[in-house]
Known about the structure:
By secondary structure, the chain is mainly beta. The protein contains 1 helix and 10 strands.
Amino acid sequence: MFRFLFAVFLLVLTTSTSSAQVCDSMDDFEWMEGEWVAESEKYRTYENWTRVSTKTYEGEGRVVAVATGEERSTESIRLVEMSGEIFMLPKAAHNTFPTPFKLEQCGEGEALFENKTHDFPTQLKYVHVGSDSMHVHVRGSDSKGFVVRFGRQSNH
C-alpha cells in the first residue's frame, strides 16, 4: 500500500511541476519585441521593445493626443534579469527614478509583474493575443484599472 501511495504522490508531483511554467530566461519574452500601437478616440499609445543583450530588453512608451499630435506622456522601460529574477523597470518622464515590478507569474505568452507597495499601478500583466496583438492589464491594489489593447506595427 505504501508503494502505491508513494507512486501516486510522485505522479501528482511530476504532473503539477511539469505543467507549471516559469519564465527564467529572457528568451521567454521574445514575443514582446517590436513596435506596438493602441488607438482610442482621444489617444494613440505606442510601446516599442528591443532586445539589447541576453539579460535585457529596452522599451519605450508614448501617449500622443490624436487631435493635436501632442505628446502627452513618455516613459523608458527596461525588462531585466538580475540575480536570477526578472524585473520590469518603467521610468515615467515625471518621476526621478524607475519603479520596479517583479515578475510574479509567467506562462506561455503571458507575464504578470507586481509592486504591491506602489500607489498605482501595482500590477502590469502582459498577454500575447495571437501573433499581432498584445494586451497590457494595468491594475491597482483594489483591482481597478484598465486594459491597453496593442496591435503589432512591424513584422517580427
